[in-house]
């Protein structure tokens, strides 16, 4: 399983998962030109994308989706809530309403879980193949305790670490936006990310990618330092933590 974060941040999010002959995208939030250019670096074209998983309907996650499906024909997995937020998807035939779990091919398994965000039907994913698994969770204000066992001790995590609380509270955002970002339907802070990761990192875990970092209210250095500090405070020894950036492509080979 080859996982490539093509874009991660407030301006757009795309992750590519290559398994066997399947090319799967999680979200499609940058513009179409950026996607074409990014795929070409891996000898792929848009027509090679076979499946798309959508976490929710905000523009930084679906901004290029309409253009993409007018020109290509992947299978797109969504929830009823996402269809409400992105109503134009109702006019396409290749839309699949996802169950709690489903298979792409016989041996690529996808399990979904609810996230807490101010978007309808928002989702996180666990993608598994050949005893290797990726947990993808961004755009959530918290993680329900019932989900923790489901996402514990996986091989790889792409995990939201959106903001530093002090930077957010003393930054330029208006009060209403600060409240939104830090709320239970907003985004995980670095400290929250560190707390959750200290509970779910296990012996099988190979890599953690901190994702969806705010360009305004965070830096990669602060995110890494904070998450590592929380891990140490909880007696978790794990060093292979890296930050995804808005336009820096990042590969994980499981």
Key features of this structure:
single chain; 254 residues; alpha/beta; Metallo-beta-lactamase, Chain A; seven-stranded mixed sheet; 14 strands; globular
Which ranges are low-confidence, i.e. pLDDT below 50, for 5 or more consecutive residues?
none
The CATH class turns out to be Alpha Beta
- How many runs of DSSP E, i.e. beta strands? 14
Mean pLDDT: 95
CATH architecture: 4-Layer Sandwich
> At the third CATH level, what is the topology name?
Metallo-beta-lactamase, Chain A
Provide the spatial order of strands within the biggest beta sheet: 6-5-4-3-2-1-14
- Main sheet record: 7 strands, mixed
> How large is the radius of gyration?
17 Å
Class per helix and strand makeup? alpha/beta
At the fourth level of CATH, the homologous superfamily is: Ribonuclease Z/Hydroxyacylglutathione hydrolase-like
User: Tell me, what's the shape?
Assistant: globular
What separation lies between the terminal Cα atoms?
5 Å
Percent in strands: 25-35%
Task: Describe this entry's structure for a reader.
The protein is of the alpha/beta class. 27% of the residues lie in helices and 27% in strands. It has one domain: 4-Layer Sandwich (Metallo-beta-lactamase, Chain A), CATH 3.60.15. Helix 8 crosses helix 9.
Brief sketch in words of this structure:
With 254 residues, the protein is an alpha/beta fold. It has helices at residues 32-40, 59-62, 65-71, 80-85, 148-151, 165-169, 175-182, 190-200, 220-233; strands at 2-7, 14-19, 22-26, 51-53, 75-78, 95-97, 101-104, 108-114, 123-129, 132-137, 156-160, 207-211, 241-243, 250-253.
